[in-house]
Amino acid sequence: MKRRDFNSLWPVLLGTGASTSLLNSNGALPIIKPPRLKPGDLIGLITPGSFAPDTAMQKAVNNIKSLGFRVKLAKNIRAKRGYNAGTDQQRLDDLHSMFADPSVKGVWCVRGGYGCTRLLPLIDYNLIRNNPKVMIGYSDITALSNVIFQKTGLIGFHGPVGSSEIANFSAGHFKALLMEGRTTHLIQLKGHPNKSSDEDFLPHTIHHGIARGQLAGGNLSILASIAGTTYELKPDNKLLFLEDISEKPYRIDRMLTQLRQSGLLTKVNGLALGIFADCKADPGDETLKLKETLADRLKSLSKPTQYGYPFGHIKHQCILPIGISAELNTRQQTLRILERVVT
After folding, report:
1. Domains of the chain
2. Is pTM, for the whole model, over 0.85?
3. Catalytic residues
């Protein structure tokens, strides 16, 4: 049976949930890799979280065109309701319509911001499962990418939002993974263009070792917010990656403690940490520094853990495919994608 034919049976076979008889031995759905993107493809822009101002919207359109794609704006993309980009239903409709539209080959989130977790109980996961596409974004998009993978098996992509700076570094990772479809891809701890003397940018190793597993993770604040809910991240055989921005060390401590006590950090195979930008304490605060806080919460786990990889709220970002096998090697200072991420 052809893969697309098999995928079309999922709504009948699974209904609103997943039949345990159809799950893999590890309790997960079969992995679905989206079709690779090609020059000239139509990319749909959505705002599933916070409202995007005109400057951010125009930047997103320009970025997509500069990569050789055409752009389609979601119907409700200019809607605004308080801090969100319209009502939950409007943002949900835009997400659904982009996946349902056969002319749209990829879905790119203009920005993150708050609001994506509100959509999780409302999403038609069968619709997404049967219309697999590249969806890319970071920050609050962490909730969508990880939960969609867990509910459908569709690989998601933690990477620049549409309004990010898509410089040569990020564009190179985008093309290598999502357009060329390389069988392996290397991300290095050092040598990327995110140069700064700021302590938040300085790489360091918390615990040496080699760890393999399925990539999962993203923004620490979002992962902590869904811990203990039906949408929490499943830790088995996972290589976890984390990043955040503008969180004081005591807040980082609190969120990591929550993830430890929920069982996530104690069960994953290893941790690759991005750059926690602007996560320093204020002068005069009686607190541990960011580096000390991370070591305090993570070193005792005795899992390979390394800080400073090029992802997070930074200018030059790599792309991390959620659900794909990867290897963290702290001695070689590398994070290697071990398989093709698109078909």
Report:
1. 3-165 (3.40.50.10740), 185-337 (3.50.30.60)
2. yes
3. 139, 243, 313
